[in-house]
Amino acid sequence: MGLAASQARLLTITARKSDCEYESMVLSHQKIALSRKMSQLSAEYDDAIQQTKLIYDYYGQTSETTPLSYNLMMTPSAMNNYTPLLVTDNGGRVVLDGRLAKAARDAGIPQEGLDGLPSSDIRNAFIDSLASTGYISQNTAENIKKTTYNQMAGVGSCDLVNINTTEGTLTDLINMVSTQYFDFSDITSFSNQFVEKVYLEQRKNGTNQTAGNRLSFADILNNDYMMIAQTAIAEGKYGFNNLTVDNGTTDTLSKMSLWDAMFETFEGLLDTGDEYTQAALAYARRMITDMITNLGEGQDDGTSYGSGHYGLGTVGTEFGNDYSENGKNIHDNFGDWRYVGESSLGEVLGWARDDISADVVGFNGIYNQDCTGGAEDNDHVRSAVTINISTMFKAYLTYFAQYMEGIGDSSYEVNKTKTSSNLIDDMFTFTIVTDVDTSGDNLLIAAYYDTLFNQICSKGWTENDKVNDNEYLHESLKNGNMYISTLADDGYYYQGNYATNNYIKEITDEESIAQAEAKYNREKEKLSYKENILDMKMKNLDTEISSLTTEYDTIKSVISKNIEKGFKRYQA
User: Can you give the residue range of the structural domain that contains 117?
Assistant: First the structure.
């Protein structure tokens, strides 16, 4: 190779070697960048596996399925015991989302709060605005506005529910249930193999008359109604043989939905929220429930119709043979049993205990109907049980009044017979809930919004619509940018860290950790792949640089020898 060619080649090798070395340096820097990314990824993963979340465990069952949310705290429900759990800022102001903030503005509440107690007009304007944005329904808004505004709810009053009440007598209470009806036609549908039908009779002017199926509670209390459960015709000598409390008639009457309707109606009117009143209602319910579930308790010695506390017991089988036409003389054997009357077919309708001596619970008796028309042929009979529902209603109210006055001090008393009892009358004064739909949780919902409204007015407010994002809310609470204000036993709200609330718990966020681990593995695999590519490229460049260096040295040696030969030639 000539000298000129060798020099040209040397320059080419030098340029290429410089390019390779530069590329190698670039790849080295990229690899360093990948290492930094890997370190950052590892740090993020380490942080992620320490990640926690806030959950709400109101029922104390160590449940981890309910994340703490703004909606859960700021919407009335059983989960928050219909008591606001407030999110507050560093200044103690209530943090409101967009719709709540609009309601505060519409009601004219400044962000620094009001100086003094707000009025019911401002409260109603606040409620109307919530309904306008769909935060609450229009029906809920109307029910809230029907309740008397509780100015002290959450600002000194532990009793958040403010109920409108009035004082009234038994007559006033009866008037208030005049629109509460019970449809007895529903009781014609029952499942009992012994009972053929259930119907109503009214005792009026000393006689029993068939009654209609739809009665108001006022009608029941003002009159004298019996509910009768009648068995199908069965065979039995002397008629009374199939008359046992086990034949299903007493069971049918005791399980009527009428009793639940009675409890719910009177509890809705008399439950003022006072613990003693609630105990009185529970006592009355318990006593009546005991009565109706024990109908027919009594003697069962085969020789009498029993003298149980709540009924007649099982009628005996040996009653003698003193019968006349249609069995009308049977009362000679059984004292206070009476003839009820005859049907249009001439059949004996039955015998029942006289109301004067009937058990006060209204269990007027078990009676028999001869279906054949003669004492000498009374093998086909039907039996029935009656219960005086009017007396039962009055007994319920009597037990309530007795508890309210003090069981040992009250003049009211429920005994086995009417003549030995002193049932409820107009001398007792009831405290009756008025002017509000007490069904469901309406009162609790009204109390919730009164409490929230009072806190906004007294503490002030700030708007932050991001609080509806659980992740933002949790981080804000954990880093101390926001706090939780909780109602204390003294009726006031106090601000504290989320950890001071018994229902809020911080737990390991397993779902986020799993997601972080998946992300870490995915990104790590990408970085490893890129690093392998860089390593391969750098290895190839190192090989090329080594080859170029060898060739460079060889050509340089050739050039040196050519120059040396040239000098020797000219010296010669």
Answer: 52-161+439-508
